[in-house]
Amino acid sequence: MAAIIQRSFMWCYFTLLLLSAIIKVTQTQTCRWNRPCYPPTVDFLQNIDNRTITASSTCGDQAANYDLRFAGDFQDTYQSTMCDAADPDNSHTTVMLYDFSTHEVFGNFYTRPRLDTWWQSVNTEQDVTLMVTLGDSFLFQETILSFRSVRPLAMKIEKSNDFGQTYVPLHYYAQDCGASFPGVTTSSNSYNLPFCEQKYYYGDAETTVPGNDIQMVEYSPAGDLGQTFYQKFVMEYFSSTNLRVMLVKTGMAAPDTRSYFAVADWTVTGQCLCYGHAVECTGRVEHKSLNMAQVPSQQKHLIIGRNQNQAECVCQHNTQGASCRECKPLFNNRRWMEGRGNNANACEDCGCDGFASMCVYDEVKGYGVCQGCRENTVGDKCEMCIDHYYRNPNYTGPGRNDGNTCEDALAPEPCSRYCWSCGCSRTGTVRGSVCNETDGQCECKTHVTGRKCDECKDTYYNLQSSNPAGCQECQCSIVGSLGSTNFCDKSSGQCICKTNVMGDTCNMCKDGTYNLDVNNPDGCTVCECDKGGSINGQCSGLEGACDCRPNLDGRSCNTTSAGFYVPKLDGISYEAEMATNNRDAVVTEEDLIDLDDSDNVTSRHTGSGFMVVSPSDEVYFTNVRIPRTQRYSLFLRHKSKAIWNTITISLTPQNTADYTCNGITIPGNAPINLPTGSILPAENGGAAEFGSDTTPCLGEGLYDITVTFATSSGGSTDTLLLDSLVLLPRLDDIEAYTSVDTPAATKEDMTECWGAAGAAYDPLRDTVNCTKLEFSLMAEVYNGAISCLCEVVGTVPNTNTECDSHGGQCLCQPGVIGKSCDTCMANHYGYDTGNGCTACNCDPLGSERLSCNQTSGECDCKIHVIGSKCDACRPEHYGIASGNGCTPCICNMDYSEHKDCANDSGQCVCKPGVGGMNCNQCASGYYNLTTSGCTSCGCNFDGITEDGGCDDNGQCVCREDVTGEQCDVCPQRFSQQGEEILTYGFGPWSERGCIRCYCSSHSYNCTQATGWLEASVVSRFSLTNFGAVSPRWTGYDLDTNTTVAVGDVPVLSVTDPRIILELIDPSNLTSIFFKSPDLYNGDKRTSYGQMLTFVLSQSTTSDPLIDPDGDVFIYSRFATEPIATALPTPPGTDATPYNIKLHENYWKKGTIAGAQPTTQEMIHILAGITSIQIRAKYTTVSIIY
Ligand SMILES: [Ca+2]
Ligand SMILES: [Ca+2]
After folding, report:
1. For strand 908-910 and strand 896-901, is the pairing parallel, antiparallel, or unpaired?
2. By the 8 A CB rule, do 344 and 353 touch?
């Protein structure tokens, strides 16, 4: 409800009122997002530019008197006053309606109206109009008029919102509404139905303020309507460009000097119309009455100014427009509404997320629809992708980022792009189809797959746009495909073949394999073709038969046809002994030896021997056949003790035509000269390689080769044994070696075998591996196998068409050698007999040489040597063993039986008693040389001196310690100290004839003991007495009749000096015996009835050996078999003594199974003992010490 208030304010009250009003103006406001907000309410008269204030009547244009009112408690009083526009003190223009003064309150500056100035109309004029023109539309909220005159009896307030073209009434005031404003209602409950109030009129006690001249009229629709006021249509109703007050009838009814309108102050307040969406309204600030320098800067923007007649709301809540009357383009997700009450009614984001510039609210859908979606988006919210695009699942742009990670490098398009092109293959996609908007999957043809439909499905290939199904099915062979599947290369259609299978559909065996088989995991079986033996390493058929070079057989081409052979690697060899030289060739033959016998390295060579080469010799090899054009290395096999330098080799082709080798034309009319080379010492045979660095390429055909030997470090008389010339085909030119199919290990073996072939006689060559590899290499060089060349005469009958398939060696008759069996081996003869060759067997001592006449086999004898083998001296000659022939015998025929002499010594056969080699003197013990011989002196031969034994009278001459007429008595002697020394043991074993007693210096007396054996041992084995060790017992192996070593350990003892014999190394022999030395042999008849005494021990008694023949044997030259006996017990590990009586009761003849000898037989045995043998081993354990 509007009200008219008549008050008479006290000063202080007025001050407070203004203070409050101004604080409202300058208070800083903010606009919260969920609350409506408004610009500050200001006084339009003071605070906006370009407003104009007009009055239809103003006094003073012509000075006139009037009565100024002064209010009283009960009655007003008047004072006559002048209104004169020309007099500043008495003018009352409209400016006076809004003049203000500035005051400081608590340090701040505020304004307040000046009530002592006022506008006043001309006396008695009625229907005066006061009007403010705002220049723009503002929201009018309140107007207050403070009258200096009596309030009018009738007035009305009008507004225009079209700059004065039309006005509508807002409110009426009248003392008598019915009289003043007939037809206007006096009450209303509607904001847009103005009514008339009769409340305020002159004398109304309620509105009279005693003591104050001011009567106020306040019309405040904003205050009266409350929140209703802020409804859109209400605010629009009160929006105004002009506001005018029609003062219809003055407060004094009588037309006199008190009848006028006077207004001390007029405020028209309001705000920019921003519909609750702005807290600020802009415009150029230009205030007439305020000293802006004094206005705090932070408050200036709150003061609404005018800028080119336009007010601009600073819109919030996503609104825009001068009055925030519309939503921003992208915030039309709901209908625009004014902010009101507790609700901001802010405009809502449509959610276009930058893909559109605007959206439009759709009444039916109830939300905003984005307009003009960009970046390939579509949809109300631009949330979908247009055809042929799909949504980036991990979009990283603003608004729709789901937080997933996305890397540009891995994405088909930038991660910040919302829609990605599907990129469907034109070829593989169904025509006219679109891809899945969600995942980008294109619609593929039947046999096509992939998101873009750019790939054939498994087991399909060849994507073509012309193919309605896209791709065609693979045609893989189930037999040859890996895993028997139908997978093929999706582009080429190439199937996945098993290892040894090829072809687009895997239907063929690879080269070098055969027999495509579904059950074979590799598909085909690798050919086992010999590299060189087969033409190309390929095979065919179920058996995998290889394609062989000529004259080769076998599934793998690794055998030769019957009658053919493949030469060895060094098969191109020419024997030096068969070559010629520049002088008479000297050839030496040597026996071939078994080349496999690696221990015998002294005579390794081929053929029948060597050529003997001297410095400056030239050796000519003619008709050397080169099997095919390629490079070769040359080797000279030889025996040499010195270094031979500057050896040159020249090869002259017999065919003078040019030939091509490795693409190079080589002239055939010039010899090839190899760089000079050397031969190093190799006494047991060696091979020197020539041309290894500049290996010559030789053309197929015949060559003549000259080897020139210049100098030897052994001097001009040195000789070299040249065995042969060998040409080895270089491996680099043999495909069986160079082929990429040849494993590296095989190449290494080939290289090794090649080197062994060059070096000659290397046992490595005869290994199976080298044989096989050489066959392979040479089968290529010779393009297959060549015919066997066997001499009928030299080969075993009916074998001359056969030979060793490796090397071509024919099967030779005994004693025949040569690859073709064309010659006798060294020192054999009789080749032409057809029965092989026979050894010459020339006696090496009696023959000039070991070779013999090739026909007769006659050897060439040395002087005085006879016999076809030269193995005997002529009659009456001797000494063939000297190696210098035989020497004539020189026999004194007066005393010789005949002219012949001993073959070895030349000793003539003398008449009885005659001695000397030539039979020209009496023998020892004889005298009186006659043509009948010499006479015996009758001496004991063991006792006489060696030179003669008796004098010319027949008197015996005894040895030093022998006496007696026949020199057979051991004498008594005396020492230098006069002591008596006895001698004993007459016999041939002593140089002195008898033995002096040895009693360790304690006595010189002794007697011969009862056991001769013991006596002999004591005397003969005494190391200190005789110095050297006498002939002693030896070890003897009865099975082989050979000596076995024994050792001895001397035991020096006064009472029992002796030697212990040890068997050193009996090995596994079983018939080991100790055998007596000569000392125990001879005539031992004096031992008859005595004891044979000895001691034995052995290191082990396990595994006893019992010999049924016996343990002790005595041999005699007077018996054809020994006598034997057995030990009662075998020896223990400690010394075991044995005593066996030399009596017939204890012995058997031959073995212990034989008969007992008679007494006569026993003595005969002892009369000529040749050896006593005692078993030394009584166990089968192999090692005994
Ligand atoms: Ca004033
Ligand atoms: Ca030779």
Report:
1. antiparallel
2. no
Count helices and strands (H / E) in the chain.
Answer: 12, 84
Taking the centre of ligand 1 as the mean of its atom positions, its distance from the CA of residue 94, in whole angstroms, is 9
Predicted confidence (pLDDT) at residue 1025 exceeds the cutoff of 60 = no
In angstroms, the CA 689 to CA 679 distance is: 9
Q: Measured between alpha carbons, how far is 457 from 467 in angstroms, rounded to an integer? A: 14
Residue 781 C-beta-side C-alpha neighbours within 13 Å: 32
What is the Å distance from ligand 2's center to 773 Cα? 25
- 3-state SS, residue 495: strand
Mean pLDDT calculated for residue range 285-289: 37
Answer whether 148's CB lies under 8 Å from 261's CB.
no
Q: Which residues contact 718 (CB under 8 A, 6 or more apart)?
A: 614, 615, 641, 642, 712
Q: What dihedral angle (degrees, nearest 10) is formed by the CA atoms of 377, 380, 384, 388?
A: -60
CB 634 within 8 A of CB 726: yes
Give 718 Cα–ligand 2 centroid separation in angstroms.
19
Copy the structure tokens of residue 2. Answer: 């509007």
User: Which run of H or of E encompasses 179?
Assistant: helix 177-180
How far does the centroid of ligand 2 lie from the alpha carbon of residue 637, in Å?
8
| Cα 592 to middle of ligand 2, angstroms | 10
Q: Counting ligands in written order, which one lies closest to the CA of residue 579?
A: 2
Residues paired with residue 1034 on neighbouring β-strands, in sequence order: 1075
Taking the mean position of all CA atoms in its chain, how far away is CA 947? 95
Which pair of tokens denotes residue 810?
């024919």
Residue linked to tokens 């210049």: 710
Residue appearing with tokens 């002195």: 992
Q: Quick one: CA dihedral 585, 591, 596, 600, positive or negative? A: negative
User: Nearest ligand, CA of residue 578?
Assistant: 2
The answer, yes or no, to whether residue 998 has pLDDT greater than 60, is no
Quick: pLDDT tens for 434-443.
Answer: 999 889 999 9
**Full DSSP string of 854-873:** TTT--EEE-TTEETTTT-EE
Residue found under tokens 């539309």: 137
Q: What angle do CA 864, 869, 873 make, to 5 degrees?
A: 25
* The pLDDT value given to residue 1001: 41
| Dist CA 204 CA 153 (whole Å) | 12
How many angstroms is it from 89 CA to the middle of ligand 1? Answer: 13
- Phi-psi region for residue 640, left (φ > 0), alpha (ψ -120 to 50) or beta? beta
Tally Cβ neighbours within 10 Å of residue 1145.
9
Quickly tell me which residue has 């058996």 as its tokens: 543
CA–centroid distance, 586 to ligand 2, in Å, is 13
- Measured in angstroms, how far is the CA atom of residue 829 from the centroid of ligand 2? 18
661-720 pLDDT, tens per residue? 888 898 888 899 998 999 998 887 889 999 877 778 999 999 999 999 988 888 888 888
Task: Starting from the CA of residue 575, give the closest ligand.
Answer: 2
Nearest-CA neighbor of 1038 among 1005, 1006, 1067, 1075? 1075
- CB contact set of 13 (below 8 Å; sequence gap of 6+): none
Average pLDDT of the chain to the nearest whole number: 83
Q: What is the dihedral angle through the alpha carbons of 395, 399, 402, 405, rounded to the nearest 10 degrees? A: 50
As a whole number of angstroms, the distance between CA 227 and CA 233 comes to: 12
Residue 612: Cβ within 10 Å count: 17
CA distance 545 to 107: 124
State in Å: Cα 594 to ligand 2 middle: 14
- In the numeric block, the tokens 């027999």 are attached to 515
Cα–Cα distance measured from residue 251 to residue 203, given in angstroms and rounded to the nearest whole number: 10
User: 404: part of which helix (H) or strand (E)?
Assistant: none
611 in Cβ contact with 579 (< 8 Å): yes
Residue bearing tokens 């044994």: 721
Beta bridge partner(s), residue 645: 711
How many residues comprise the chain? 1185
